[in-house]
Write a structure and sequence with these properties.
This is Flavin reductase. Keywords: Flavoprotein, FMN, Oxidoreductase. GO terms for molecular function: oxidoreductase activity. The chain is of the alpha/beta class. It has a single domain, classed as Rossmann fold (3-Layer(aba) Sandwich). The protein is built from eight helices and seven strands. α3 packs across α8. The radius of gyration is 17 Å and the shape is globular. The protein starts with a helix and ends with a helix.
Length: about 220
């Protein structure tokens, strides 16, 4: 059991200060087996829009528990990066990368290279967090390479899921998905207030793990 947990951790790549560290295992079985494994694995980038270790992170970890066995996963933590806001200068022309000499380009390069993007955010003032919005804004510099991605969203808020705040966030992602021809695999919203509330909701935890496992 301990080895299984460690193996899963080795497949997860955490992004801090713009540096991406590879923790993927090296397969040394026969060539045909390697090709089959490579064909089925997806590169998944998770953008964690929360700076806290609370319910959003809990949701991400549940998803990773299901998805990490068959996929390569990278986690982007915007609050740990040095990224200036988009100035709308237009120099990037949606394909050339950003002129800012910070963590923007290494971060957006990883998103552009992903097969799937998971956007995860708490609800702040009826919308996504500033941390997540910052990354989305800077994606403009490589916007032409973000088309046809598989995408999922996880939103965690302090109001019941029939509140308009979730609808507003979903609509924004719907617009982005239409513009970039994304394949929207899932949009999940959860109601949790106390820091450990989502973790105690076994149905939600099983749902998130199942989503990851069935990718």
């Amino acid at each position: 059991m301990q080895k299984s947990v460690q193996a899963r951790k080795n497949r997860i790549i955490s992004t801090k200060s713009g540096q991406f560290q590879s923790g993927l295992p090296i397969f040394k079985t026969n060539r045909n087996t390697n090709r089959k494994l490579e064909d089925t694995r997806m590169k998944i980038v998770i953008i964690n829009g929360s700076a806290r270790k609370g319910n959003t992170l809990t949701a991400i970890n549940a998803f990773i528990k299901g998805a990490s066995e068959k996929n390569e996963i990278e986690i982007i933590e915007p609050d740990k990066l040095n990224i200036a806001p988009c100035k709308g200068c237009g120099v990037c022309q949606c394909s050339k990368g950003c002129v800012d000499k910070d963590d923007t380009n290494p971060t957006i390069d990883k998103i552009a290279a992903a097969d799937m993007i998971l956007f995860a955010t708490p609800v702040y003032w009826w919308g996504m967090s500033a941390q997540l919005k910052l990354i989305i804004d800077k994606c403009y510099c490589r916007g032409l390479q973000l088309k046809n991605k598989k995408v999922g969203t996880i939103v965690v808020g302090g109001s019941p899921v029939d509140s308009i705040q979730y609808e507003l966030i979903d609509k924004q992602f719907d617009c982005m998905a239409k513009y970039l021809s994304w394949d929207m695999l899932f949009k999940k919203s959860y109601y949790a207030t106390a820091r450990d509330e989502l973790e105690k909701n076994k149905d939600s935890m099983n749902e998130l793990e199942g989503i990851g496992k069935n990718l």
